[in-house]
Amino acid sequence: MKVKTINTAEFWLHKSLESFHSRMVTLGLFVVACYLPLWLTKLVVGTLHGGGAIFTAAALVLGLHRLWQQRQELAGLEVNEGDRTLGYFLIGISLLLLPLGFSTLWIQRVVWLQAFAGIALSSWGATVFGRYPIPTFLIVLGLFPEPTAVGVTLWQTFTPPQMLERLMAWSGTIGLKAIGQPAVLLNPVSIALPGGAVEVNWGCSGFDMATVMAIASLVVGLAIREAIAKVTLMVVIGIALALIANVPRIMLLALSEAYWGKGAFDFWHGPWGGQIFAGTIFTIYYYVVMAIRKNILQVAHTS
After folding, report:
1. I need a labelling partner for 230 at 20 to 30 A (CA). Which of 27, 214, 249, 287 fits?
2. Using only C-alpha atoms, what is the Rg of the chain?
3. Residue 170 scores a pLDDT above 90
């Protein structure tokens, strides 16, 4: 077994150095490998805190898997000299920028994208991006530094100030009154109960979870090869469910602050509470989407 492993390693080492192109591709893969421990660490930490890192990672893996499935067709693509030169240039730039990415996430992901793009251009040409748009999109989504941050910027640019926070505070107050609690709005984003008050800041607006659900729905829909219309429906359902489910979460946090003490509030507001909340949403989402998918299939079958 040990001899076989050594022989395999020697084969791939020889393969990676046998031509100028293979050496440039190996250089690009080296750049990718340098950031891999940081990426894995962020993935684990983000997942433990209930973030969407696991789904962007799934998008990256799914995109690469889709390309791997087309490896025979990719091997037949012709590359012109201009594309190959541009690919080598991108790999070279990614190597020069490599040290900067160890301290800055955005630079790290830009370097990764450059390395992947350089490998693709030099190996298959620019036509690969147009011929395989879904794998390309998934890989870019998986490597995008902070999808939520871009969404936040767009939302805050085109909506009134604190629009979502106000909506959640108002909805939470209505919900608490519906279960017999004397809740009132202290201000547009604060809910007061006799034992205390909570302020609905941006982090509790439900936007982050809605973004996570959108990415998860997109990745799952593409993974099971649903039609674009169905994938869009899954994304819409995920976003709506995340925002609706955030209202009971706001109510729970208000009750924790008012009646159960700081420890209870910190638990439900912290990583463990976030994991329970996320797990509940994904469970509900699964059954809702599966029920809708089943009904669509039944309608299609009967028609």
Report:
1. 249
2. 24
3. yes
Residue 190 — pLDDT band, cuts 50, 70, 90?
Answer: very high
Q: Each residue of 35-64: pLDDT tens digit?
A: 988 888 888 877 776 667 788 888 989 999
Mean pLDDT within 209-220: 89
CB of 190 closer than 8 Å to CB of 168: no
At residue 235, does pLDDT exceed 70?
yes
Residue 5 pLDDT grade (very low, low, confident, very high; cuts 50, 70, 90): low
pLDDT surpassing 50 at residue 9: no
* Helix residue ranges, H only, the chain: 2-17, 20-48, 53-69, 71-75, 81-97, 105-124, 127-131, 133-143, 147-158, 163-178, 207-223, 228-255, 262-269, 271-302
Alpha-carbon distance 239 to 230, whole Å? 14
Beta carbons within 8 Å of 254's beta carbon, 6+ residues apart: 172, 176, 183, 191, 193, 197, 198
Q: Note the pLDDT tens digit of each residue in 171-189.
A: 999 999 999 999 999 899 9
User: How big is the chain, counted in residues?
Assistant: 303
Q: 3-state secondary structure string, 216-265?
A: HHHHHHHHCCCCHHHHHHHHHHHHHHHHHHHHHHHHHHHHHHHHHCHHHH
Looking at residue 77, its amino acid is: L
| Residues whose CB is less than 8 angstroms from the CB of residue 249 and which lie 6 or more positions away in sequence, other chains included | 204, 206, 268, 277
Q: How far apart are CA 16 and CA 69, in angstroms?
A: 21
Cβ–Cβ < 8 Å for 221, 235: yes
Taking the C-alpha atoms of residue 222 and residue 200, their distance in angstroms, rounded to an integer, is 34
> Buried b vs exposed e over 83-110: b needs ≥16 C-beta within 10 Å?
bbebbbebbbbbbebbeebeeeeebbbb
